[in-house]
Structures are given as C-alpha cells and as structure tokens.
Design a protein that fits this description.
667 residues; ten-stranded mixed β-sheet
Length: 667
C-alpha cells in the first residue's frame, strides 16, 4: 500500500461559523492520498492552527478521504462528511487528530469499518455514522474510545453487532437498521440478542437461488412506495418457519432491488417466474401508491437541529398531504416535528404540498433531492413558522418566482451544489425578514433578483458569473453588501437583454438600490434630526444650569479673591519686613565676616611673629647659655687667680684680700 501512496494539496474555503472556524474542502482525492500543504485564503488574524471544523459535502468527496489533515489543523475538533461516494474509511485519516471530539459521516457507501479505524481518537465523544450501507460492527471497534458519550448509527444496514460499547456511552441510536430499530440510553442486552451472529441469517438476493414468487407470497410488510423501486425490503421478513425461528434479513448490497434489475438480473433465466414477479410487484406497488396518495410517510429522527421527519414516500406527481403516518419516538407526536427532510438518496420526483397543514410547527425544510423535477409554491403552504430552507443537489435550472411567496417569516435560505442557472427577479419579494442568503456552489449565470434590504450575510461563492461573499459579522470582509450586490447585477445580467422589457435593466436596478438607500438615509436623517433636537434641548437646559452654577460660583469667587488679596497684601508686607531684616542680617554677617577676616589676618601675623619670637628666644637662650658658660669660666678663672695670688702674697695682703672679697664690686 505504501508504494501506491500519493501526495496532494488540500484546498479550503475558510469561514467562521457558529460551530467554530471552518475549512470547507474543495476537490476530490484518490486512494491513499497524503496532504502536503493547505491552499486557501484565511480570514483576518486566522491561520491553520485556528481551524476547528473540517467540512466535506457531497460534491467535495470522491471515494476516499485524504490522510494527514491534522498535521496542519492541529486544533481540529470536528470532522463532518456528507458524501454519497465514500466507500472506505481507514485509521490513517485520523492520525494526529488528538483533539477530535466529533465525527459525523452520512450518506456513504462503505459496508464495514476496520477494527482500528478509531484507535487514535481518545478524545472522541460523539460519533455519527448514518444513512450508509454499514452492515457489521466488529468486536474491538471502540476499544480505545473510552470517552465516547453518544453514538448515532441510525438508517444503516446493520445486521450484526459484536462490538463492546464503552461504559461511558449514554445514548445509542440504532433506529432503522436491519436487525434492530430502537434507541437506547445505554448498552442493552436487546442489541446483542437481536444482532448477534447466531440470531441473524443473511440472505443475499444477488447470489441466493430463491423462488421470488414464493418470497412475494410470504412478504409481511408495510410500505412499497415507488413504482420503479422496492425501497422497504429491509423492513420485510419471511415466515419464521422458513428461517429456523431466526429473523431473516435481505441484503441489498450495492444495487437496490428494483423491478428493473429483477427483470434484467441473473434470475431472468426463470422467465416463467420472472414475468409473474414483475406483474405482481407492479400491481402491489400501484395499489399501495393509490391507497396513500394523500399520506406522508415519515421516519422520525431526533437530531441536533430538532425532531425530524425524514420523508420515505416517493411521489411521481404533485400530491397534497392530508395525513402523516410513521412511528413516533417515545413521548413525541406530529406537533413536535420541527424539521422536514428529504435525503439525497430519495427517488421522489416531486415534493408533496401543504406539509405544514399537518406538521404545523415546522421551522426548517431540508430538501436534498437529486431526482426532483419540480418544487411548487404550495410545498411551503401554511408554513407560518418556517425560518430556514435548505435546498441542495437538485438538478433544476431555475426556481419558480413565487416559490417563497407564502413564507413571510423566512430568515435563512441556502441553495447549494445545484444546477440552478437563473434566479428570478421577484424570488424574495415577500421575504422581508431574510437575513442569511447562501447561494454558493451553484451554476448561476443570470441574477436579476431583488435582494431584501434586511440581509446581513450574502454568499455567492463558486458560481459561473460571480464569486463573492459578505458577512456583516466577519472582520475579514473585503467588500460591502451594496458593492457585492452591484457587482452581482453587473456580472450576472442576462446577455443581450439589458434593454429588454422582460428584464429589469442593470441601470434600473441600480437606481432602485440607490432610491432604497436614499429612503433609508432619509429615515436615518430624520431619526438623527430628532436626536439632534433632543440633544439641543438637553444642551440648552445644561447651559442654563451651568450659567446658574457659574454665577453662584462667581459670587463665591469674588469674596474668595478679596480674601486672597488681603492675604497676599499681608504676605507682601511680611515679605518686605523679612527682606529688610534679611538685608540687615546679611550686612551684619558681611561686616562680621570682614572682622573675622581681619582677625584671621592678624592671627596669621601673630602666628608669624610668634614663630619669629620663638626663633629669637631660642637664639637668646643659646646666647644666655653661652654667657652663663662664659661667666662660669670667668668665675673659675677669678677663683683660680685669687688662689694663686694668695699663695704668693703675705698675710697682710691676705687681710686686704678678704676685704676685697666682701666688697660687692669684687666681681
């Protein structure tokens, strides 16, 4: 398988929706295709990591889903696929999807699922696989999904259920399956009792050699509603004596059992039986159709958008509904029905009329009719509460001009993936409450429609004459509603019919739009004038009040100013006195400073004189010492001389010497 892997880009139309930031996938994929890059223009301030929902519709799908999407969209929480071509679902699709919370797959052709397909989805809480050919749920399928809460497996061909449901599951919808037709709030023994290998015997009508005539004789059933196709064989059972007390399921496989393929099948060899079969089936079918010409058969389903009636009847002509048949869910009745739904696998050619006459509280119509040849105005007759209409996959090339004439409360209309080429001028003439108009992915070539002024969202993406989008809630819109409408009229007017009286010319439409804008502006201007008048009155009153306040404030201010002046005068006088005192002190300080300076100078002189005196004293001291020493020498010399004289003189002389010594002038 690895050798056959392919690489491709994923093309997205990015948009913000109520469930988050969406990637609407464009393009188809081959088997084992791995995504290597993302193409598309993001909304303002958004990138790949902001994408929460991956949405694939019927026209966007081939037979396979690509791998590696979550490598780029790492915040992905929802994956929704509505495609009748899908034949395979593998584990590789979900690799890296660690945040995936919801997986929804409808109207696909795969008959089984690999045991490990959901192994990487530990966060999965809601799984819906409905309106597929799935016939078996294998053991271990939900082994890794221990957070799973809700399982919607309605409208499949389940015949064998061996899977163990996680204990976290609180709802299991198994209505309209081969082996069971019930809705459970938790896993029940009834599921395994009816759908185990031992309790179901499958008869494959494409290979089993059966006596078709004997089979018809033993049919114990309720509805055969199409002259060309037997659609309710899945509800028919054989006599239990024929099946060893086990239910017998007739598998349809890829080819629905129909009158046409019964004639042309391998059973054609039994010509004698086959002719009788064809005749008998035709007779039974026509009798039942005639009996129910005014009855609507519903398969009632609880869905996220409300309590649904999915139409099971097939109409070959217009019929007015007078009653409804079908088994309601517990506690529900006709007044609880909110949504009328026709699947894209329906073979009906007409939508019955006056449905709201019996289902009076319908708020939404979902019409996915690939076989429809006409939709009449009376389809929506008496639908007073109808707010939303979705029409997809139809092959009609235009819609009737008065189609929505009786739906005055319509707020939301979606037309997508159709063959519609022309929109009539007065299509929305009565829908003056219309807010959301989605006309994307059609084949529109001519648009002369007068769009209601109440629109807040208009999408014309991927049409032949226009590719534009405006949403007043989006910050990324690159145009305005008026510019988009004008651009539409310019690009989508009928070729060569601008001046034709059968069409309103582009210029006339433009004038009408301008007049509407003028009227709207006049209303706004009138409202603004009223507001201005009220503001003027309020302003005048406010000015008077302010003047009174100002006058009172002025009086108070005059007294305050006088007080302030007195205080200022006192402060000035005090300041002057302080200044004079300051000058006196300053002068005194300057005088003292001069005296100090003189004293310092004198002090320095005294220090200098003191130093000189000290030097003089030191010199005098030295001189005194010298003199003292000299005196000592002189005294010593005198003493020596006296002694010497005494030694050589006589006594007489001695007496005189004594007298001399006592003389004060002796020295």
């Amino acid at each position: 398988m690895a050798a056959n892997r392919r690489s491709d880009d994923l093309s997205c139309y990015f948009m913000t929706h109520s469930d988050g930031y969406n990637c609407h996938v464009r393009g188809r994929f081959e088997q084992n295709t791995t995504i290597t890059s993302i193409n598309g223009v993001h909304n303002k301030l958004k990138n790949d990591s902001d994408v929460e929902v991956l949405f694939m519709e019927r026209t966007s799908l081939s037979k396979y889903l690509p791998f590696g999407v979550c490598t780029f969209f790492d915040s992905l929480t929802e994956l929704e696929c509505f495609g009748s071509q899908l034949i395979e679902l593998t584990r590789e699709v979900f690799v890296g999807c660690s945040k995936l919370d919801l997986v929804m797959i409808q109207n696909s052709k795969f008959t089984s699922l690999p045991t490990d397909v959901f192994y990487d989805l530990a966060t999965l809480r809601t799984l819906e696989i409905s309106s597929t050919k799935l016939s078996v749920l294998q053991a271990g399928l939900f082994e890794k999904n221990q957070n799973l809460l809700k399982l919607e497996l309605q409208n499949n061909q389940l015949a064998i259920i061996n899977v163990e449901f996680p204990p976290s599951v609180i709802q299991i919808d198994l209505t309209n399956n081969l082996c069971i037709d019930s809705n459970f709030t938790k896993p029940a023994d009834e599921i395994y009792r009816k759908c185990s290998n031992e309790s179901v015997k499958i008869i494959d009508l494409t290979t089993e050699d059966l006596s078709i005539r004997s089979l018809i004789d033993k049919l114990n059933a309720s509805v055969i509603s199409n002259e060309l196709e037997i659609k309710k064989l899945i509800n028919l059972t054989l006599d239990k004596s024929q099946s060893d007390n086990n239910d017998i399921i007739m598998r349809l496989d890829e080819n629905q059992i129909s009158l046409e393929n019964i004639q042309n099948s391998s059973l054609r060899e039994q010509q004698d039986v086959n002719d009788k079969v064809y005749s008998e089936l035709t007779k039974i079918n026509r009798d039942l159709v005639d009996e129910r010409t005014e009855q609507l058969e519903c398969d009632y389903i609880k869905h996220s958008d409300g309590y649904n009636c999915e139409m099971k009847s097939v109409y070959e002509e217009n019929k007015e509904i007078t009653s409804v048949i079908g088994e309601h869910k517990f506690g529900k009745n006709d007044t609880d029905v909110e949504v009328f739904f026709i699947t894209d696998s329906s073979k009906t050619k007409y939508v019955p009329t006056k449905i709201c006459g019996v289902l009076r509280n319908i708020t939404k119509f979902d019409i996915y009719g690939t076989s429809l040849v006409e939709i009449k105005q009376d389809v929506f007759g008496e639908c007073f509460d109808l707010k939303k209409i979705v029409i997809k996959y139809i092959k009609l090339k235009t819609l009737e001009e008065d189609l929505f004439e009786q739906v005055e409360n319509l707020e939301n209309f979606v037309l997508g993936f159709t063959h519609v080429e022309v929109l009539p001028q007065k299509l929305f003439a009565k829908n003056q409450k219309l807010k959301f108009l989605d006309l994307s992915f059609n084949k529109l070539k001519q648009i002369t429609t007068e769009f209601p002024s109440t629109l807040t969202m208009l999408s014309l993406m991927n049409n032949e004459c226009i590719d534009g989008h405006y949403d007043s809630r989006s910050l990324s819109s690159t145009t305005t509603m008026n510019k988009l409408i004008m651009d539409t009229y310019k690009k989508c007017r009928p070729n060569g019919t601008v001046n034709n009286t059968n069409f309103t010319s582009y210029d006339t439409i433009r004038i009408n739009i301008v007049e509407e804008q003028i009227n709207d502006n006049e209303k706004k201007l009138s409202a603004l004038e009223t507001i201005i008048e009220n503001l003027e009155v309020k302003l005048t009153n406010k000015i008077d009040e302010n003047l009174r306040t100002l006058k009172a404030f002025k009086l108070d201010t005059t007294d305050t100013i006088d007080k302030i002046k007195k205080e200022v005068t006192g402060l000035e006088k005090a300041s002057k006195d302080h200044s004079e005192k300051f000058l006196k002190v300053t002068n005194q300080l300057q005088s003292d400073s001069r005296d100090i300076k003189l004293k310092l100078e004198k002090n320095n002189e005294l220090k200098k004189m003191s130093a000189e005196l000290r030097e003089e004293i030191n010199r005098n001291e030295n001189l005194l010492v010298t003199l003292f020493c000299f005196q000592l020498v002189m005294i010593a010399a005198a003493i020596f001389f006296g002694v010497y004289r005494n030694c050589y003189s006589n006594r007489g002389h001695g007496a005189r010497l004594v007298n001399d010594q006592t003389n004060p002038n002796f020295q």
